[in-house]
Amino acid sequence: MLATDKLRYTKIPLNNGSGSIPALGFGTLIPDPIATRTATKAALEAGFRLIDTAERYGTEKEVGEAMQEVFRNGKIKREDVFVVTKLWNTNHRPERVKPAFEASLKKLQLDFLDLYLIHTPFAFQPGDDQDPRDTNGAVLYDKAVTLLDTWRALESLVDEGKCKAIGLSDVSLEQVKGILDAARIRPAVVHVESHPYLPEWDLLNYCKRHGIVMQAFAALGHSSEPRLLEDPVITAIARRVDKTPAQVLLAWAIQRGTALLTSSKTPGRIKENFEVSTIPESAVLDITDGIKSRVRFNAVVETGVPGFIPRGR
Ligand SMILES: NC(=O)c1ccc[n+]([C@@H]2O[C@H](COP(=O)([O-])OP(=O)(O)OC[C@H]3O[C@@H](n4cnc5c(N)ncnc54)[C@H](OP(=O)(O)O)[C@@H]3O)[C@@H](O)[C@H]2O)c1
Asked: What contacts 226, CB < 8 A, 6 or more positions away?
């Protein structure tokens, strides 16, 4: 079954940029730099062809080193890998976008990027401090710039040819509509938390209607409570179809038409997560209709403050 099943190689067409995006993506929000490097290399060797990072994760340098090491071995070429990074909240002012983009590209040791995302719709006070706060600990926002101002600066990066596609992250449906109405270059990807506890059907259906790929992060629930990997609906299907709970969740995400991001620093799990194959349509429906819990694990959408990155990093 696994040898002939092609689900893990699914690519979704993009409305601009590199043509299509691998559905199964590997995220590098991994706290330890050595583990980031080892995991990125292991992910590429296991078969992942999309690597996601961000200025704010502080992992671009290690991701760049790991990719170069793999490219030097000759089996995988730069053009085979879809690389994504993100503009941080403190760089939303249009004049800060290109320098931030170029700094990311330099750390990644690349001369073009497949996808550049605005990490969150919240502009923070510009400067070197990625987490600017007042004396009471309240976030210092930047009221002088709109999401559309920043989007226009990303459009210019596409015009210059070093960035193939652009998109949004941690946005609401209303924010996506606002950008789509005004954009000269439409968002290719909308990257949000999504899994069976947060299916985001309205956003997914809107994205599908407008040719935008919805990319789901925390596809396995980020090892947070309540444990999605231990949900009785998921574990029952896993037993029935002889796959692991993680493989069931990842197959569900692809089969309902999203791209996804998963992450692991554990080599065995990285391989397991790439060895995804099709589950029966009845199992997809059992998850869609049978799981009623609703949980958002990452509160980044409320304030722009990362939910999975400890303060001070
Ligand atoms: N834009 C944003 O605001 C945003 C926010 C969050 C994440 N992201 C992106 O999305 C990526 C994925 O998100 P995520 O880290 O929350 O993904 P996730 O895959 O839902 O969660 C990762 C956690 O699951 C564990 N895990 C992975 N595979 C497993 C398996 N087969 N069995 C059991 N446990 C397993 C990992 O443990 P081990 O590492 O110990 O193996 C890790 O603790 C991030 O790396 C990042 O690139 C973006």
From this structure: 197, 293, 295
Summarize pLDDT for 171-209 with one digit per residue, the tens: 999 999 999 999 999 999 999 999 999 999 999 999 999
Is residue 271 lining ligand 1, measured as CB closer than 6 Å?
no
Question: What pLDDT digit, counting tens, does each position of 83-125 carry?
Answer: 999 999 999 999 999 999 999 999 999 999 999 999 999 999 9
Phi, psi of 71 (to 5 degrees): -65, -40
Phi and psi at residue 217, in whole multiples of 5°? Answer: -100, 165
pTM here is: 0.98
Catalytic residue among 57, 141, 197, 206: 57
The two tokens of residue 208 are 């599908």
Which residue, by CA, sits nearest to atom 23 of ligand 1?
222
Contact call for residues 120 and 59 (beta carbons, < 8 A): no
9 as an active site residue: the answer is no
Predicted pLDDT of residue 3: 67
Q: Is 36 in the pocket of ligand 1 (CB under 6 A)?
A: no
Mind giving me the DSSP string for 37-67?
Answer: HHHHHHHHHHT--EEE--GGGT-HHHHHHHH
pLDDT beneath 50, residues of the chain: none
